[in-house]
Structure formats: structure tokens, C-alpha cells
Amino acid sequence: MRTVAQNAELALLLEVAGTPKPGNVDRHRDHDDLRFEHFLAGAVGARGGLDAAAAGEPLGESFRRAVEGMSEQRGGNTQFGALLLQMPLVAAAGADDRDLSPGGAAAVVESTTVADAANFYRAFEAVDVAVDDPPEEMAALDVRRGSDAVPALEDRGLTLADIMARSADRDGVAREWVEGFERTFGAAESIESGDPERPVADRAADAFLELLAAEVDTFVVTQHDRAAAERATERARAALDGDIDPEDLAEEFVAEGINPGTTADTVAAALFVALERGLEV
Amino acid sequence: MRTVAQNAELALLLEVAGTPKPGNVDRHRDHDDLRFEHFLAGAVGARGGLDAAAAGEPLGESFRRAVEGMSEQRGGNTQFGALLLQMPLVAAAGADDRDLSPGGAAAVVESTTVADAANFYRAFEAVDVAVDDPPEEMAALDVRRGSDAVPALEDRGLTLADIMARSADRDGVAREWVEGFERTFGAAESIESGDPERPVADRAADAFLELLAAEVDTFVVTQHDRAAAERATERARAALDGDIDPEDLAEEFVAEGINPGTTADTVAAALFVALERGLEV
């Protein structure tokens, strides 16, 4: 039987394999400097940190290790958000009193410490992550400052859960941390309830479109603006309604530089939940 | 830095991602019941056995563990041959006196025991592997007998190296074991000397074609016959010479049910060697 960390790694691989996943690297599409094989290496490299999280080691340190390992390829940031979203779920699934549920994951989030927050910040030193400027009162806590922000964190006594709460209004991954992983568990159910004969990666691509059609992708907001993200969601809805072929939408998003990365992160976390609950590949 | 076992796992993933790899599952092609995602799960599942081999645990037991883990997906045999070819290389790379060279790998082969052979046989119980009928005097040692063949092995005192030597005339993986992994190291050099801007998986696909053009694939001999295998090699040579588009050859092989699996196994082992020697992804 695959271990908890193996399921997390496999989820990352199945996520990137799923196609069409408009705007993202997938089995059929590379970006210029960010290619399918970078995601393969990223998933394999993240494994040590996933093992640590499943073994109950501190969440922030596990995350930092996963990101450092993920970064050992030439594509840059492949799975930062996916790993951040998976971490509390992996910890919940790996715990002795295993509780892979929204409540169990929320309990992991609640238990995070200031040290976890510090390691979260340190993880940003391993890889360039696209983020918005923080609100002015948060400037000292800009994640791009990496470990330079740690004294400010410690002064204010902020845990990783506190940091996520402060970003939840503009970052979809942070929002999942705060809101009990509602979208993640919903997408897991969607994948699980798909045609069992349909490849898992294809069911994951379906879930991607459903998620994007339901809610704007905050990574698109960061890279472009809210209008672009709202338009991307409208287009995803059109694809879901059969008004545009998802393959054509994929070409359209690539041409426009639309990359719904947070939605992909959610699918990776959902695949992990589904695999842990027995989804067969 | 990725561990030895992580590089072996990543090599399996890069191998299946490389395209076009005429006749095999690759990033762009599935077979009906054997799909890309089965190879992803196979590579992840094999990891425990790869970890064991890198840590110096007995080779046969490590292989059996790798195959059992690999088999936890619905596609059946995805990487049996690739793992068998990787094992001595992984052990050589993981040893305290690390010697990832033809000589180092040959020394590992030489050191195998009857117990390693027994676990090799047991590995056949985890998954259906296409093999030829053995010569009559070897009937008691038919691998398809699995652990039922172990008493015969023990009676004759055959090590895993002995078993490989007895199959080298009809199995390309066994031949590599016997002949110092000559093709594997040659293909590793070919991948390493490719254009560094060209994706690693594409360079691996190039190496696949070169290998197939140079020598018949014994898996094709097993599945069809020698004439079919010789014809496949001629066609690969034509593709290499530019007389046929490799993408068209891929369609041709799929239509004919030609699946040069042993050549793919060699590429997976070659990718491992190249990654261990510093190939960047």
C-alpha cells in the first residue's frame, strides 16, 4: 500500500498529467520555461518534506523541506501552492489519530506555531513565488522578505494559521486553510464520483474546470487583475456548459497568459484526499 | 539534492514522459488498458524498494518490494524490466564505496545470491510479465512458477547473476546484467551529450530511437517473433535517418501492436545513470 506521502506525491503527478487543464502545464502542454518534466522533478523532490509532514514533524519545517526539494529543477516554482494546500491534509492523514476530514485538517491548522510561520517564510527563499504586494500594515511581513521577516513574525507572535488568515481575502490557498478545505473536499468528491472507467487524471481535469467555473482563481488575479480572473471563470463556465471546447479554451488561455494556478493547487490537494480515501488509479 | 532512489524514480517518470517513443505509452499515447497514469503510480509505488536497494539491502528483496509497490495500480506490469535493470545501478550508486560504472554495477551483479534469485522469482507473483517459454532443461525454473521454483533454484545453487546469464540470449535486460550495462551507459552518454536546452524527456526519446535502431527489442521478439522485431528495428533506423517521421512510426507501431518495452527499460536505466552523474532537469 502506498504511504500517505506517496499518495501526496502521486497526487501532484496526476494533477499535472490531467488534460486539458486550460492555462496550465499539463500532459499535452508546456510553457516556455516551465515544462511538464519540471513538475515531475518537483513532485519527486518534494517527497522528503511530505514524508516529514506525514510523520508528524513540524508543519512549517516539513513544508520548507518539501519546497526546497521541489525547487531542484530548472523550471522554478512548480508546486509551492499545491504543497502548502496538501500539508495540513498530509499531517491529518499521517497522524496516529488519523482524521482526514475538514475538522481534522482544521485542527492541524489550529495547532500551527510561530516556528511554523517562520519556516513558511524561509521556504520563499528557495523559489520565486508570484505574490501581490501586502497591505501596508503587513509590509514587514511581506513573504518575499523570506527569513528577514522572521523577527517581525516573532514580535507579533503570529502562527502559520494567523498568517494564512491574513491572506485569505486575496489568496485561494490561504482561504482553504481558513475555511476548512471546503473546495478541496468538494473536488475530491467530484473526482471520486466520476466514471470509474475514466482515467483519474481526466477526472481531475474535469474537477479543475468545475472549480474554475465556480470561483475566480486568485493566482490569475495576482498575475493579471480581477477582471481577467472573472473573465477566465466565465470562460470556464462556457466550457463546462459545452459552449466552447476545453481544448480550444486551453489554447485561448495560453495565448492570453492566463494560468489558473490556484485552481490546479486545489485539484492536487483534492487528488490526495481521494487517493487516501481509496481512489484507484 | 535528490537521493539515489529519488533519481531512480524520476528516471522512470522521465522515461514514460518522453515522446514520441514509438510503440510505447508516452506523454501523448496510452494503450487501451495500460495508461500513462499507471506508469506514474508504478514509479511512485516502486520507491520503497528503490530506497532499500540504495541503502544496501539485499538486491532480490529490494527488487521484489519495488515490483510489489509498482503493481499497486490497475494497469498491470508497467516497469518490471526497468526496475530490474536499475537495481544493480542503484545499489552501486548507493553503496558507501559508490562506484556507478560498468565495473561497479558488474560487481553488484557478481555479489548476488541464491536468496536474491528466490526473491526475483517471488516478484513474478505480484504482476503478469510477458515471457517466453524457457528451454526444456530450464522448465523447473520457469519464472512464471514464482515461488514454486525456489526449491529448484536452491537445489541447483543458482544466484540471481546465474539466472540472468541463462536468459541473456533471449532477454535484453538480462543481457545488460551480463554484459556490464554497455547499452545503458552508452544511452546515458547520448542523453548527456544532447542539446542542454532540449527537454530531458525529449532527449530520452531520441535515445530510445537510437537504441531500437541499433538492436532488436527482445520484448517484441517475445510478443511477436524475431522477424517482427527485426522489422521494428529497420523502421526505427528509417526514422533516425529521416525517412519516416517518428510520430508516424508511433502510429504505425500502435496499429501493429509493436511495443519495444526492453528498449524503454534501457532508457529508464540510462536516465538514472545520467541523473546520478549530474544531468539537470
Automatic annotation (TrEMBL), chains A, B:
Transmembrane segments: none
Single GO MF descriptor: triphosphoribosyl-dephospho-CoA synthase activity
Species assigned in the record: Halosimplex pelagicum
Domain of life according to the entry: Archaea
Parts forming coiled coils: none
PANTHER family recorded: CITG FAMILY PROTEIN (PTHR42280:SF1)
The protein's name in its UniProt record: Triphosphoribosyl-dephospho-CoA synthase
Stored InterPro entries: CitG
Pfam family, one: CitG
